[in-house]
Amino acid sequence: MTLEAFIRSRLKERPLLLMTHAVVGYPSLDANWQMLECMQAAGVDLVELQLPFSEPIADGPAFIKANQTALTGGLHWDDYFDLLARARREFTFGLLFMGYYNSIFRMGHAAFCERLATAGAGGFIVADLPPEEASGLIREAQGRRLDLIRLMAPTNSPARLKAIANGASGFVYCVARKGVTGRTTELDEGVITYVRRCRAATRLPIALGFGIRSSEHVARLKGIADIAIVGTAGLEAWEWKGRAGFAAFLAELAGATR
Q1: Whole-model pTM above 0.90?
Q2: Angle at which helices 77-90 and 109-119 pack, to 10 degrees?
């Protein structure tokens, strides 16, 4: 089943899906596995597994620290793909790579896509790769039934949104505001209008992320987006409240999608 088909099948069951995030290697691989178990129990639909990188330019302080800690701890590519493959065998949610282009460039387009497909991911998000520079990577991805998820931003003109949507697959990741991850986004009429502009540019499912931090935020996205993305708030729930608090937070988020 393609990533888009997986998403649309789940959207038949409820109006909004939930996508969460983990930085592989932070705070440890064992903790990552416990996070994934909690995500499965809560009924999360999609999970971004981030490959740590030394300069994660789209990330806020919480994820910068997580990336640096994972790298300092010796997280290797093999550890990443091993965790991804194990998760694919054990869990039912969709799995996505998230990372930065330098890592993919160093590995090589073909080798990266082959390892990702073999491990069982449905697609990948590259935060710093513009569409104009992605053709070689897309060719390798399409040959392995992988979707390169494209990002739209509030600063994009209608023409730019159309250009980003051209050739997009899987779903479109709409960045809710300018800046980096972590800060709360006010889900006001401006955000709603922006999402409508994104919908006018593509027929793919729409995911909204950056600053979605609570079940109240998630509930407000019903009828606006197809997928709510919660990243930093989940990491903070784990750090501040441990496994039990993290599991409760995920359950609240998932409940708000119904």
Answers
A1: yes
A2: 30
